[in-house]
Specification:
ABC_transporter-like_ATP-bd; 22% strand; five-stranded antiparallel sheet; single chain; 6 helices; transmembrane transporter activity; alpha/beta; Putative ABC transport system ATP-binding protein; five-stranded parallel sheet; ATP hydrolysis activity; Rossmann fold
Length: 211
């Protein structure tokens, strides 16, 4: 499902980073561990096709990303990958429902209002469907971001530091929420984090070095 081999990436400043080989199978949950500067976010962006021009191999859902054109990559990402970023990137001018509608629209998929109902209800957000995202609490906005990430039933979910700014109670809530929605859709889940509280939650772990 996810496989990298001999992967390295050179930043515009000239310094480069090399990543360990690893594979994550379909439906598996995995932590990507490392301190700040170890390349966790860079690796997620490479795996999601947000960064290109890498050396080595990046296969996602049995597809070598380097072989896809920009247009094909955009469509592939929208149909197969769900992203939960450090910041939720919700569109403040839109309602919760319309923010979710962006996910299938940008992926070239038909908008399914029943699926929106299903996902919002599952995350305890049904009553917020028509609300502006500016009216949401931080926790509610984070759940909307998770809802948008899983709306298209992606085969892979990437989450970048989803718990680093949360207290213990909300940390547990968010990681279990991600694991639950991934399990419901049989999605592969890769969580990049330096949050030590998550190490006991997911047994498969890949450690990145900052050196």
């Amino acid at each position: 499902m996810i496989s990298i081999h001999d992967l390295s990436f050179q930043y515009s400043a000239g310094n480069s980073i090399r990543f360990p080989d690893f594979t994550v199978t379909k439906g598996e949950h995995c932590l990507l561990l490392g301190e700040s500067g170890s390349g966790k976010t860079t690796l997620l962006h490479l795996l999601g096709g947000l960064l290109r021009n890498y050396a080595g191999s990046v296969k996602v859902d049995n597809t070598e990303l380097a072989q896809l054109s920009e247009t094909s990559l955009d469509r592939f990402r929208g149909q197969h990958i769900g992203f939960v970023f450090q910041r939720n990137h919700l569109v403040s001018a839109l309602s919760v429902e319309k923010n979710l509608m962006l996910a299938p629209y940008l992926a070239g998929l038909k908008i399914n209002t029943e699926r929106i109902t299903e996902v919002l209800s599952g995350l305890g957000l049904a009553e917020k469907r028509k609300s502006s995202v500016t009216q949401l609490s931080h926790g509610q906005a984070q759940r909307v971001a998770i809802a948008r990430a899983v709306l298209n039933k992606p085969s892979i979910i990437f989450a970048d530091e989803p718990t680093s700014a949360l207290d213990d109670k909300n940390c547990d809530r968010v990681i279990h929420m991600l694991m639950d929605v991934a399990a419901q859709n049989q999605s592969t889940l890769l969580v990049a984090t330096h949050d030590q509280r998550l190490k006991d939650k997911i047994s498969k772990q890949v450690k990145l070095s900052s050196s």
